[in-house]
Structures are given as C-alpha cells and as structure tokens.
Design a protein that fits this description.
By secondary structure, this protein is an all-alpha fold. The protein starts with 8 loop residues before the first helix and ends in a 7-residue tail after the last helix. It has one domain (28-93, 117-192). The protein has helices at 9-24, 30-42, 47-57, 61-89, 122-137, 139-158, 164-193. The chain is 68% helix and 0% strand. Helix 4 (61-89) crosses helix 7 and helix 6 packs antiparallel against helix 7. The protein is built from seven helices and no strands.
Length: 200
C-alpha cells in the first residue's frame, strides 16, 4: 500500500528494547533505587564475583576449584565483551536526561555513566560467566550465583546505563564463554594437582 512504512526487523527490535528500557529504568522508591545503585556499583570490576570466589574458596577443594573455573570464565568473558564486541557494535549508552522532565526526578538510582559502549553489558557477562563456571563444578552452589547475576543485569538497566538487549546478550555471551573455558580450566587444574613421581 502506498504511503505505508514497513518497519524493519532491526528497527522493531530497537523500539521494543527502548520501551522495555523505559519501563525497567523507571524509579520505584527512593530507598529501593538507592539500594540498586549501590548494588550495581559493587559489581564494578567483578568485585561481587571475586567476593563470592573467596567465599567458595573457604568451602574446601570443590569450592576452590569452582572459584578458579568461575574466575577464569570471568576473565575471558570480560575481554570478549569489552575488547572485542563493544568496539565492533559501537552502541551508544541510553540518554538518561530524556527520561524525565525534571532533572531531579528519580535520580537517586543513577550511577556514573560509563564511557565505554553500551552493547553488550560487561557486568552482566561477567556475572553469568561466573555462575556458569561454578555450575560446571558445583551445581548446587551455583544457584544463588544465577540469582545474583540476574540482579546485576536488572541493576544495569534500572540505573540507566544499559538497555535490556545489552543485558540479555551480555548474559548469553558470558554463559557461552564459560562453557568454552570450563573444560580447559579443569584440565589445567587436574594437571597441576596430579602428583609427579620421580624415577630412579
């Protein structure tokens, strides 16, 4: 039909991502918003994953192995997200200033806007990489890790620094990275821990 504009798939996805972002980043309550902002800051530089790894390390040999595999996955996923995918995708961060007519409305949830590109969420990729890495060694212990990873992803959208699509693809990237890394890391751990017998 003449005069009818047919939306392209990419444009449609982008518009849905934008709508979901606006819904999830809407302020909830001052105390909640502030707690989410503080939580997302704790995830900077994978501090949450490192803290969890320390806790796992105190739980015996299995916990130490899970911590090492998880942190190895975090390291590789961080490089993949920040040094490879972000420079290729070059997606701009959300424009938080356009969300509210008042600059002070709901800003308690705001954190410093990163200077890197938006896609994918490196915080989310690292959190899910750690959870999947732990899953490979200690499935029961990984359950709270996935809950924490999901909370990290939500916090990145609620604080206005990522779109939901950035978080979703970050979770997939981190999980896929962990699946690739976990077996070589465990083989390396086995080689290091294997007793060496001297001949003669």
């Amino acid at each position: 039909m003449e005069g009818t504009t047919v939306p392209t798939p990419n444009r449609s996805l982008s518009e849905r991502d934008q709508r979901l972002y606006l819904a999830l980043s809407r302020p909830v309550a001052p105390n909640f918003d502030l707690a989410v902002a503080r939580f997302t800051n704790l995830a900077d530089h994978s501090k949450i994953s490192i803290s969890l790894a320390i806790g796992l390390g105190l739980c015996g040999a299995r916990g130490r192995r899970a911590a090492v595999v998880g942190l190895a996955a975090v390291a590789v996923s961080s490089v993949a997200a920040n040094a490879v995918v972000k420079p290729l995708a070059r997606r701009a961060r959300p424009k938080r200033s356009e969300q509210h007519s008042s600059n002070s409305a709901g800003t308690s949830r705001y954190v410093r806007m990163p200077t890197s590109y938006s896609f994918p969420s490196g915080h989310t990729a690292s959190a899910f990489a750690f959870a999947v890495g732990v899953l490979a060694v200690w499935p029961t212990a990984s359950l709270p890790m996935f809950g924490i990873a999901g909370a990290v992803g939500y916090s990145r959208v609620h604080t206005g620094v990522h779109y939901p699509g950035d978080v979703a693809l970050g979770a997939l990237l981190g999980s896929a990275t962990a699946l690739v890394v976990q077996n070589p890391t465990q083989r390396a751990l086995d080689a290091v821990s294997r007793p060496k017998y001297q001949s003669g």
